[in-house]
Amino acid sequence: MMMDWLVALTVGLLGFWAVEFYDLDFVPAYKEVWWVLPISIASLFIVTNLSVGLYDIKLRDSHVGIFRRCLVSGAMTFTIFEIVVFNIFTSSEILPLLFAAYILLIVTLVFTIRYLANTFEMFGITKKRVVVIGAGERASIIEKRMRRESDRRGFSLIGFIPLDSDKEDELKRENIIKLESLDDLHEFVQENQIDEIVIAPDERRGSLPLESLFDCKMGGVVVKDILDFIEEETGQVAVNLIYPSWVIYSNGFQSRHYIRVAADYVFNVILAVFVFLLTWPILLITMALIYLEDGRKKGGTIFYKQTRVGMDGHLFEIIKFRSMRQDAEKDGAQWAQKTDDRVTKIGNALRKYRIDELPQLFNVFKGEMGFVGPRPERPEFVKELIKEIPYYNHRHNVKPGLTGWAQLNYPYGSSVNDSLEKLKFDLYYIKRRSILLDLLILVRTIEIILFGKGR
């Protein structure tokens, strides 16, 4: 992110310096504040990069796909400045063709640096070196959750040190480090320049080399529980590893302060008004299209109401544009599928680009939902999921949202297993909930809308 900002800023500063130095008249004179515009352009470019997913550490896309994202980001930056900024600050306007060339140069340089970095691993030297204490069932979660290279961009996993208390060894492709004695741990850490130790034994009591770990900690090595490691590296809470004392003593899960609740409601209402003013033409066009497809002849409704589970388990009626046939649930409640034959032709487009969710602005006004939070589920499914998945009911500790951390990080889901995976991301959000995280999710939701991803 910082590299992209510096590239964009350098291009701008050099360009505007050339304009000043050669006294060119096809760009406005900025006098003492000529540097403000390059900084503003570079900063907005970072935000648009974020919105198209370029800073997702687990982004798995081809070079063509990454270049496409860079181009979309550049186009968004160009459009925002041309339509908004240059109309407000008319004295700052740049010739459109010159500005387009300027943005295209930034996009090209940013993509080129990314291509070189990914191809030749230019920045691999910055990875922290990690060793895991434990090589059994609990430690194997790391291999299962982070088996791809893209999952390990932030660290180099040196290996796993087995313990006598480990259960059956489930590690298949990892380096197993066998020390003569666990008392040699401190020496091993020093010799191999280990930056972080992850504690992942199947049985903690009496199995850990506490004195060696103490020496490592005092020597500046980070010692971290496997739950915290997975949370930090994957953006999810490993539900199957949670134990009550970890929840009690860990930071986070603080969301009920009355000032925060009031501020959240005001923020969401203001944002809902802004989104409504921005999208009301889309709302009208969508209503007309649904009516013309099957509402006029078959008597289908435009809107669809459905009972969902909200904060603290309270039920409420969610409002959506109808994207399925009128008789979609004649056989009772069903999980929605990615390729669902009950979806209408118009409904496919509505669901792909999240337009069917726009009427939920009314739920936001009523205080039943926020813009960011776990997606609300149907009570029929919640009863089943609470029985099947530990800690599932805790996702109702906050208001449900139009978008959420799980929607950004997990593909379309329609089963108990998918709900478990999404719960891991929902608990991460609830634990780390903050205004900054909400803003990050809102910005990155643009990626879902633009590229038709997730649900």
UniProtKB/TrEMBL annotation:
Q: Where in the cell is it found?
A: Membrane
Q: Where are the transmembrane segments?
A: 34-54, 66-89, 95-117, 265-292
User: What membrane topology is annotated for this entry?
Assistant: Multi-pass membrane protein
Indicate the segments annotated as coiled coil, or none if absent.
Answer: none
GO CC field: membrane
Lineage, top-rank taxon, reads: Bacteria
What family is this protein classified in? Belongs to the bacterial sugar transferase family.
Q: What is this protein called?
A: TIGR03013 family PEP-CTERM/XrtA system glycosyltransferase
Question: Organism, per UniProt?
Answer: Psychrosphaera haliotis
Origin organism lineage: Bacteria, Pseudomonadati, Pseudomonadota, Gammaproteobacteria, Alteromonadales
